[in-house]
Every structure is written in structure tokens, then in C-alpha cells.
Design a protein that fits this description.
462 residues; alpha/beta; Urease, subunit C, domain 1; TIM Barrel; 2 domains; nine-stranded mixed sheet; 17 helices; 17 strands; 39% helix; Amidohydrolase family protein; Metal_Hydrolase; metal-binding; MTA/SAH_deaminase
């Protein structure tokens, strides 16, 4: 008979080295996490939980490091079929307008669905349990339905650009259509506790009007939702805003009254100190995608003010951005290293700060602070086991530094989301990996073939 004072739970993971990311940032050498009803109900030393908890399933995690699930705060789900097809040496505007957008628009709904599932597979297998999509879904409903059942938690948005650039376009009609699309998606996929839900996300840059920015902000504030938007990865954004509004982008947004805790601005490389101050004052979040910055030549380390943002108290989260790789862990390593080198200051962005960007900072940017990104009582039961018996984990002295400087997502063994095990022994339990990979290869070939764009390789492909 179970004593009355015993806590009965669904699953208890025991014997792991816990990096909790809780408010005290406890690291527990021999720790246990108990999960019930989709939440964490107990965390502490294994011996303590063994005396007070009875679990229907006990997972022996000796030899593993446990972390919270990671939060990918900016990901393009439907770029995966284009992985490494775009030439490297493309100017930003040419790459976006002549390659990326036409290829996006060339996807059929089922191909976007396959691409999104491939991105989710990559995220789950490398420890990401929560994501914020970039607001660039064209086949929105097909993707949303494709994500159901994968087990991941995500917020998604339809491709939304309402500014009239071509002569003769009806500006008012474009904005009305964007707002109608928001209402349709928010009604069909409400953020009511389900894992996949719609938010009023914007493409950003200079593609959205003041009217849409203000309307989307009103929707977000009234309904407790969030917005994200691309801004200032390259000099083109500030140059456009200065030429057309006389203001830099963040100042323009501030004057519209749309900055705030509900908003995440993505990339934010080409900003000045006055914009950093506005971000800090307003509580606006910044999501940096260091791998995209390096590949795109955004000049983050020579022009970016991320150390200044951090010093000013701006919440910085991390994203993987496009389809090249959705393992978020290398982004933490880049964040911890690039500015040490660029500024000659080894105190900048220590491993602890980088790991916070993967977890609690991302949760805060998504309005999920205290719910995800930490192993703590009351949080969602999202947990990742990293196999510390792999060569990159041995010897193990400082687990936080090991996570940031030595490990990556290939060491992920098991993942739980809301207490459901979605990765076990390195294999996804919710997706037929072999079938999806075959579908993705065929779909990618179809998209590229229809595009008419050439495969540009420096070396001959025989």
C-alpha cells in the first residue's frame, strides 16, 4: 500500500546531473525530476524524491545530463527543403528577392507541410521543445495540421506583407486582407493551451505598414499574444526607414507605440545606441540568429551592439533562423564566443548567459516565463537528457560550460514535452523518420525543379 503522504506521479527521471535553470540556477549532481499531468511536480536530489515519490514509470538517467527543453525563438519551418541550395555569395536583397521568396512561393501546400515536419524532427532530436516560427508560412493550414501530433510546442504565423510597393496596388485592401487572415488563423488555431497555436506575426523589415503594426499590436495586447518581426539584419532596413520616414526603424516603431514586452525583433544587427536605449526602456525582446548572421555576412561582430543590449538589460534570445540547421546548441556556443573575440573581452556572454538565452530568455520572449525553459515545480514537463558518456562529454567538470563549449544536439538521447516522451534513445517517437526523410528528398527535388533556378556549385558535380 502506498503511504498517504507519498506523491504518485506518471514518470520520474532519476540519477541525472540536473542543470535546472530554476531561479536559484541549481545544478544537482544526482538529481531527479517527477512529472505528472504534463507538469513538473518535484525536483531535487534523487534520494529525497525516492523517499517521497512513487512513479508509474522510473527512468534511470545515470550517465546523463538533464536540462530543460530549449526554446528556439526564431525558426523558418519551411526552408528545410532549400537547405544549402542557395548560393553563398549573394547580396542580401538579391538572395531574398530572387531566390528565397520565389522558392517559398513555389512550394505546394503538401511540400510546405513536409518541410515543417522535417524542421520539427530536427528540433526535437536536438532538444528544442518550444519554438516561435518566423511568420512566413504560406500554406498555413497545411503546416498547422502537419505539426499536430509531433508533440512539439510552437507558435506560428501566416506570411504577412501588406505594404504596397507596386504602382496601382490598393494599400487599404492589402492591409484589410492581412487583418482578415490574422482573424481567420487566430480563430482556427487559438492560443488556448494547445501546443500549436497562431499568433499575429509580421514579416517585418519594411514590408508592413504603420496601420498593420498598430492593429497587430492591439490584437496581441488585448488577447495576451505575442508578435515577432524581422528587422535590420542588413543596412537596407535602416536606410529605407531613414529615406521614407526620416527615422531609424526602432524609433519609427517607438513613435507608433508598438514597442513593448509583447514584441520580439529578430536579427537587429544594424542598430545604433539610441535604438538600444528604446529597446531597453520598452522591454522589447531581441532574438539573435548568429549562424544566419555569419552565413549572410550581416556584420554582427563588427557592427552589432549585442553586448550593449545585454548591458542595458535587453532580453536576448536565440534562434536558428533558416533551414540549414535547427540544432540550437551551436548558436549558444557562437553567442558565447563571437563577442569575446570581436571586443577582446573574455567576460562577455559567459556560458551561463548563453545557456540562459537557450532557455529562460527564450521563454520570457514568448511570454512563457516560469512555464518552460526551467526544471522547476509548476513548469511544463519539458526535459532533455544529454548522453554524458559520449567523447565530447568526457571528462565532465563544469556541466554548463560543457553544454555550451563542447556538446551539441547530437548528444541528445531523450526528450519529453508536457511529460510525453517524444525522443527515446535518439529516435523520435512521434514521427516516422525514415518515411519523412524520403518524402523530404523527393519534395525538395520537385520544388527546385519547378523553380528553374540553377544549382551553382564551385566544383563540378559528376
Amino acid at each position: 500500500m502506498i503511504p498517504a503522504e507519498t506523491l504518485v506521479v506518471d514518470t520520474m527521471v532519476t540519477g541525472a546531473l540536473l542543470v535546472t535553470m530554476d531561479p536559484q540556477r541549481r545544478v544537482i549532481r544526482d538529481g531527479a525530476v517527477a512529472m505528472a499531468g504534463g507538469k513538473i511536480v518535484a525536483v531535487g536530489p534523487s534520494a529525497e524524491l525516492a523517499a517521497t515519490v512513487t512513479a508509474r514509470e522510473v527512468v534511470d538517467a545515470r550517465g546523463f545530463v538533464a536540462t530543460p527543453g530549449f526554446v528556439n525563438a526564431h525558426v523558418h519551418l519551411t526552408e528545410t527543403l532549400l537547405r544549402n541550395f542557395l548560393p553563398e555569395a549573394l547580396p542580401f536583397d538579391e538572395g531574398l528577392n530572387q531566390w528565397v521568396i520565389p522558392l517559398y512561393q513555389g512550394h505546394r501546400p503538401q511540400e510546405q507541410a513536409i518541410a515543417a515536419r522535417l524542421a520539427v524532427l530536427a528540433m526535437l532530436k536536438t532538444g528544442t521543445t518550444t519554438f516561435l516560427e518566423a511568420g512566413t508560412l504560406i500554406a498555413f493550414d497545411a503546416v498547422a495540421h502537419a505539426l499536430e501530433g509531433t508533440g512539439i510546442r510552437g507558435r506560428i504565423g501566416r506570411w504577412c506583407m501588406d505594404r504596397a510597393f507596386a504602382p496601382g496596388e490598393d494599400q487599404a485592401a492589402l492591409t484589410r486582407a492581412a487583418l482578415d487572415a490574422f482573424e481567420t488563423d487566430l480563430a482556427a488555431w487559438p492560443d488556448d493551451g494547445r501546443r500549436i497555436a497562431a499568433w499575429p506575426l509580421l514579416v517585418g523589415h519594411m514590408t508592413n505598414t504603420a496601420e498593420l503594426w498598430q492593429a497587430a499590436t492591439a490584437i496581441a495586447r488585448e488577447r495576451g499574444l505575442r508578435i515577432s518581426a524581422h528587422m535590420a539584419p542588413a543596412v537596407g532596413d535602416p536606410e529605407w526607414y531613414l529615406a521614407h520616414t526620416g527615422k531609424r526603424p526602432v524609433q519609427w516603431l517607438a513613435d507608433l507605440g508598438v514597442l513593448g514586452d509583447h514584441l520580439s525583433l529578430v536579427h537587429m544587427v544594424h542598430v545604433d545606441e539610441s535604438e538600444v536605449a528604446l529597446l531597453a526602456q520598452s522591454g522589447t525582446h531581441v532574438v539573435h540568429c548568429p549562424e544566419a548572421s555569419l552565413k549572410g555576412g550581416y556584420q554582427a561582430t563588427t557592427r552589432g551592439l549585442f553586448p550593449e543590449m545585454g548591458a542595458a538589460g535587453v532580453n536576448i534570445a536565440l534562434g536558428t533562423d533558416g533551414g540549414d540547421r535547427h540544432d540550437l546548441m551551436p548558436s549558444a556556443r557562437l553567442m558565447a564566443g563571437l563577442w569575446k573575440d570581436a571586443r577582446g573581452d573574455t567576460a562577455l556572454f559567459p556560458a551561463e548567459s548563453a545557456l540562459e538565452m537557450l532557455t529562460v530568455n527564450g521563454a520570457r520572449a514568448m511570454g512563457l516565463e516560469g512555464q518552460v525553459g526551467m526544471l522547476a515545480v509548476g513548469a511544463r514537463a519539458d526535459l532533455v537528457l544529454h548522453d554524458a558518456r559520449r567523447p565530447e562529454w568526457v571528462p565532465l567538470h563544469n556541466p554548463v560550460q560543457q553544454l555550451v563549449w563542447s556538446a551539441d544536439g547530437r548528444g541528445v538521447d531523450s526528450v519529453w514535452v508536457d511529460g510525453h516522451r517524444v525522443v527515446e534513445a535518439g529516435r523520435c517517437t512521434t514521427i516516422d523518420e525514415q518515411s519523412l526523410l524520403a518524402e523530404a528528398q523527393d519534395a525538395a527535388q520537385a520544388v527546385i525543379s519547378r523553380s528553374g533556378l540553377p544549382l551553382r556549385m564551385a566544383w563540378p558535380l559528376l
